[in-house]
């Protein structure tokens, strides 16, 4: 019998502390509160819209697309040569997204 591409994934055991999909989603949603985001951006001259590069009238879909693009560009794993700057930019991007989506 030929194994499929996802057969190994289907048998992956997460019962020993890795959590399930619902737990991962809940922890993702709790990463940054609106208050934390406002605190991070309070010292910035930029607005959340300018950080993400979207218009003030942008839809939620446009904001999400811009967030994914920016966070992908500035993710610390992709910017090992400028780790400090990447971490600061990532925090700003996540804060801007948190404010615009809550």
UniProtKB/TrEMBL annotation:
From the record, what ranges are coiled-coil?
Answer: none
SMART domains in the record: DnaJ
Please give the superkingdom of this protein's source.
Bacteria
Protein name per the record? DnaJ-like protein
Please name the InterPro entries in this protein's record: DjlA_DnaK_co-chaperone (IPR050817), DnaJ_domain (IPR001623), J_dom_sf (IPR036869)
Could you list the residue ranges that cross the membrane? none
> What residues does the J domain cover?
47-102
Q: Which CDD domains match?
A: DnaJ (cd06257)
């Amino acid at each position: 019998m030929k194994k499929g591409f996802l057969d190994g994934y289907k048998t992956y055991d997460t019962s020993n502390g890795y959590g399930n999909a619902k737990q991962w989603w809940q922890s993702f949603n709790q990463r940054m509160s609106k208050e934390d985001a406002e605190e991070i951006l309070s010292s910035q001259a930029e607005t959340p819209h300018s950080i993400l590069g979207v218009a003030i009238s942008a839809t939620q879909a446009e904001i999400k697309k811009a967030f994914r693009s920016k966070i992908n560009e500035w993710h610390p794993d992709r910017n090992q040569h400028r780790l400090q700057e990447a971490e600061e930019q990532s925090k700003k991007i996540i804060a801007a997204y948190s404010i615009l989506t809550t």
